[in-house]
Amino acid sequence: MSTPPIPVLMVIPTGIGCSIGGYAGDAIPSARLILAASECLITHPNVMNGAVLSWTDHRIQYVEGYAIDRFAAGEIALRPVRKQKIGLLLDEGLEPDLYYRHLQVADACRTTLGLDIGPILKTGVSLDISLTQSQTGTSWGNIGQPDALLRSADKLKELGATAIAVVSRFPDDYETEASNAYRLGKGVDIFAGAEAVISHLLGRHLLLPCAHAPALASLPIDINLDPRAAAEDLGYTFLPSVLMGLSHAPDLVAISENVNQQNYNFTSSELICSDQLGAVIAPQGALGGEAVLACLERGIPLIAVSNPGVLNVNSKALGIDDCLPVKRDESFITAKNYLEAAGFVLALREGISITSLKRPINSFTLDLAN
């Protein structure tokens, strides 16, 4: 008899320069490994999007960051689906060449991959995206015309779209010091923070699966390009991975008093609720996010992986070490890498005590004698 799946939430925050997951889909191999151990992975676009490259699997639930937070807090559930009808929203600020390039991506994904794409709308006015960087080094951004974004997205929903992909014109800042550092594997993705602002705003407004792709002029060739950033240099657009992820993203179901999470057991056709999570996996220096803290509060085991970025919000900084229950090894687990994290997930799935895998192992006889 095979062991049932164990839903696992994998979070790598965007725009903080993590060694794994801070670049163009470079966390996908780690996500695939966690998926193999769990058989049910819930993660977000920053993990799965590799510009023109991605990975699809019906066992992966592709969920935007705002919805991830609400899911972890127990406010929404996820309903796996066979497909989504993807509405495509294009920034009025796209030049003709970029506009038609992205229409060709939609044609290619519909024709080659069989995705259900349409309707397609433009925003009417340029969204006017600007980029900033915080004092901590994380990337951020602003939307000059948020009302135009929301109005257009509402129209797509009215026309029958069940998921929304947005393409907005980003500043061509690839000649800046920060962008050059990123391409050499030494910096933060300067676009990621602004992308999160856009997708979070849409997700909160619509309660639909949403994801964003920036539109940029073609990048100049760089023979010193870091392999982790290479996926972004392969084509004219970052849209393919967004469309592939949204094509099977789960429906977002608001949980009310009329929905009792305990009435649902995980199967491919029923709701996935946060109470069913077997673990949440996050970088050791990025434990302050809403989803991770919500999981800790709900008693879901946390696997903190060594995956350095510009943040250092670890368990000590948050005071987690002082307030954990007695069984620390079962509720807060540190992993040297995602290889080790996958082993811990497998142990949790098989019901193997984590303490039994470590040495030295304490004697009950000696403990009780003292």
Explain what this protein looks like in three dimensions.
- By secondary structure, this protein is an alpha/beta fold.
- The chain has two domains: 8-81 and 253-369, 3-Layer(aba) Sandwich (Rossmann fold); 86-246, 3-Layer(aba) Sandwich (Rossmann fold).
- It has helices at 28-38, 45-48, 65-72, 96-112, 146-158, 177-183, 192-206, 239-246, 290-297, 315-318, 320-323, 328-331, 338-350, 364-369, and strands at residues 8-10, 41-43, 60-62, 76-79, 86-90, 117-122, 129-133, 139-143, 163-169, 210-215, 251-254, 279-283, 302-305, 332-335.
- A six-stranded parallel sheet has the order 3-2-1-12-13-14.
- Helix 1 (28-38) packs parallel to helix 13 and helix 4 crosses helix 8 (239-246).
- The model has no long low-confidence stretch (mean pLDDT 90).
- Mind summarizing the main beta sheet? 6 strands, parallel
Beta-strand content: 15-25%
Overall outline: globular
CATH classification, class level of the largest domain: Alpha Beta
Considering DSSP H and I runs of 4 or more, what fraction of the residues is helical? 25-40%
CATH topology of the largest domain: Rossmann fold
Uncertain stretches of 5 or more adjacent residues? none
- The name of the CATH architecture of the largest domain is 3-Layer(aba) Sandwich
The total count of helices amounts to: 14
The strands making up the biggest β-sheet line up spatially as: 3-2-1-12-13-14
Q: Could you say which structural class the secondary elements and strand pairing correspond to? A: alpha/beta
Number of domains: 2
Taking Cα atoms only, what radius of gyration do you get, to the nearest Å?
A: 21 Å
Distance between the termini: 42 Å
SSE string: EHEHEHEEHEEEHEHHEHEEHEHHHEHH
Number of strands: 14
Mean pLDDT: 90
